[in-house]
């Protein structure tokens, strides 16, 4: 197409496609009504490319990874988020490979993906078209913090339960998210549905294969990462989830370190100095290091007096130095802290029904997801993957 008009969202229209052939290159854009048409591949199922048109594009986020746009699909009027990242043509994009495997009600859905050319020659961008979810746990927590309030405990239960469901699912596939934090937990405030997003740091962990230790946002980094472990497991996500739960209960981060070392200091202030055995479990190379001996701070004194005992108990089961001592996401789902969600009469504070929480697959049940408590709730179904 000669003299292609300027695109309205990502790339200069006068740039031709790169010399390497990519499926799903952008094919046209109309400036007048700001409609962009691309050849995109569905996120799940068929690999057959199809035309997708969208409009009303605006930037809603950016960072070292790239840019996120909000747009509206012309065919359905559905809002989507388009995450645009620079693609290294020598490698497959790990985030795309992982997201194409995921299909779960508590994980943001990859609807399509396509490639677009950049301003520089040979520059190619991968565009992930994701379902758009308006809020995050971070924004909700910040709003309550500004009001000098904590999030109602019923919402904390609802959000954390869904987070553990999403972790149980990805961990069953061998996938570790590696960046669990409130900013990556999307929320629909009307329905109460939570969806885990941003798999840009995620990786399929293989025993015996080393991984980078500088991963995960600082406040939520498991201690084995601070100790430089490279053979860690999906238990790093469990630690991060424990930090999120503690933060929602406290109204502020539980371990607000200014640096990697300071992060460890903040953890020691609460958990006490790790024993030699605990250090060995985190990273055997650090057993000779000498740490000042500090006693653990009672969990009851870490939290406000009105904090439910069940909530404190769950935090204590998640924030263990020894990675293998942390409870699994499946065990967390069965914890008594979530019993209120298993009562068929429980409703959201806005009087709406709870979102689907117990539609597990047979695989999930075999793995013990939710335990016996969940079988008591009405409406147990197997329609969605758990």
From TrEMBL:
BP GO terms, sorted: cell differentiation; gamete generation; negative regulation of canonical Wnt signaling pathway; positive regulation of proteasomal ubiquitin-dependent protein catabolic process; regulation of microtubule cytoskeleton organization; signal transduction
Protein's UniProt keywords contain ATP-binding: yes
Pfam families in UniProt: Pkinase
Coiled-coil regions listed: none
Region: Disordered, residue numbers: 1-26, 346-386
Residue spans of biased composition, Basic and acidic residues class: 363-386
Domain Protein kinase: 54-338
GO CC annotations on file: axon; cytosol; nucleus
Residues at which ATP binds: 84
Family matches, as CDD domains: STKc_GSK3
Compositional bias annotation for Polar residues: 1-11
GO MF: ATP binding; protein serine/threonine kinase activity
Swiss-Prot/TrEMBL keywords: ATP-binding, Kinase, Nucleotide-binding, Serine/threonine-protein kinase, Transferase
Keyword ATP-binding: yes
Top-level taxon of the source organism: Eukaryota
Family: Belongs to the protein kinase superfamily. CMGC Ser/Thr protein kinase family. GSK-3 subfamily.
Protein's UniProt name: Glycogen synthase kinase 3 beta
């Amino acid at each position: 197409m000669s003299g292609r008009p300027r695109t309205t969202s990502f790339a200069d229209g006068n740039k031709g496609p790169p010399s390497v052939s990519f499926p799903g290159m952008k094919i046209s854009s109309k400036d007048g009504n700001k409609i962009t048409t691309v050849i995109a591949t569905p996120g799940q199922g068929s690999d057959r490319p199809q035309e997708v048109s969208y409009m009303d594009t605006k930037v809603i986020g950016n960072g070292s990874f790239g840019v996120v746009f909000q747009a509206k699909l012309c065919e359905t009027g559905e809002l989507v988020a388009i995450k645009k990242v620079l693609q290294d043509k020598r490698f497959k994009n790990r985030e795309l490979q992982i997201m194409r495997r995921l299909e779960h009600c508590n994980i943001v859905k990859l609807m399509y993906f396509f490639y677009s050319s950049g301003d520089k020659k040979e520059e190619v961008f991968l565009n992930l078209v994701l379902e758009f979810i308006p809020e995050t746990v971070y924004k909700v927590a910040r709003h309550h913090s500004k009001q000098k309030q904590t999030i109602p405990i019923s919402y904390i239960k609802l959000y954390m339960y869904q987070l553990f469901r999403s972790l149980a699912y990805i961990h069953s596939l061998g996938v570790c998210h590696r960046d669990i934090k409130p900013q990556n937990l999307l929320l629909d405030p009307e329905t109460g549905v939570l969806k885990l997003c941003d798999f840009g740091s995620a990786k399929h962990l293989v025993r015996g294969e080393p991984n980078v230790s500088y991963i995960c946002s600082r406040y939520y980094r498991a201690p084995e990462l601070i100790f430089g472990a490279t053979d860690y497991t999906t238990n790093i996500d469990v630690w991060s989830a424990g930090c999120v739960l503690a933060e929602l209960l406290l109204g502020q981060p539980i371990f607000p370190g200014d640096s990697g070392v300071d992060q460890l200091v903040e953890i020691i202030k609460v958990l006490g100095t790790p024993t030699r055995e605990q250090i060995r479990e985190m990273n055997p190379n650090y057993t000779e290091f000498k740490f000042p001996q500090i006693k653990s701070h009672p969990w009851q004194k870490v939290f406000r007096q009105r904090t439910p005992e069940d909530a404190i108990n769950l935090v204590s089961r998640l924030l263990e130095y020894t990675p293998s001592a942390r409870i699994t996401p499946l065990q967390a789902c069965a914890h008594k802290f979530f019993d209120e969600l298993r009562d068929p009469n429980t409703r959201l504070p806005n009087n709406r029904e709870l979102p689907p929480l117990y539609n597990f697959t047979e695989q999930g049940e075999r793995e013990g997801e939710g335990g016996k408590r969940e079988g008591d709730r009405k409406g147990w179904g197997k329609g969605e993957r758990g």
